Amino acid sequence: xxxxxxxxxxxxxxxxxxxxxxxxxxxxxxxxxxxxxxxxxxxxxxxxxxxxxxxxxxxxxxxxxxxxxxxxxxxxxxxxxxxxxxxxxxxxxxxxxxxxxxxxxxxxxxxxxxxxxxxxxxxxxxxxxxxxxxxxxxxxxxxxxxxxxxxxxxxxxxxxxxxxxxxxxxxxxxxxxxxxxxxxxxxxxxxxxxxxxxxxxxxxxxxxx
Length: 209
Fold this sequence. Notes:
By secondary structure, the chain is α+β, with helices and mostly antiparallel strands. The protein folds into two domains: 3-47 and 140-208, FAD/NAD(P)-binding domain (3-Layer(bba) Sandwich); 50-134, 2-Layer Sandwich (D-Amino Acid Oxidase, Chain A, domain 2), CATH 3.30.9. It is built from six helices and twelve strands. The strands form three sheets. Strands 5, 6, 7, 8, 9 and 10 form a six-stranded antiparallel beta sheet that branches. A three-stranded antiparallel beta sheet has the order 1-2-3, with no helix packed on it. A hairpin with a 2-residue loop joins strand 2 and strand 3. The longest helix is centred in the last third of the chain and has 16 residues, at 164-179. It starts with a strand and ends with a helix.
């Protein structure tokens, strides 16, 4: 996306594949969400992308891992859990990063392997797969969902941090309601969720942006 402007009640975006226009725009750009906001001349919310490294490795042949729980270090310096017939391991790192196509760092992989081996009976001879991703947080580490008072038709869906998958059904329903001018779904309100808790204009974010 090269430009993003609002004209005559519509957001208009120029992209490498052509122009797009819509009355409402949902900023769900992950680690790049603040960059999209700046492109639209909308105040940023202070997103902090954090790199996390993960990998999978084979379990001991004699161990049935299907019913095993996740194992997490008390200091949260590593974790491992069953994943599709193997173990998934991680350093549980939160390394500050600019928005990017994150890649696993060799040092992070080595540290995670060492910590897991020291705490378990596992001997990790080979990493089946390795990757890294960016988990984005705002100052209060809560979700950012809904419209901003700074620009008509501009809605946020960002700051999912480490719990985007678990919260995605409720987050999607909340966004749909707010995008169409309705109240939050009744079951979410009954759980104590308020629009102010999600708002991109909440004071904690204004101070951090």
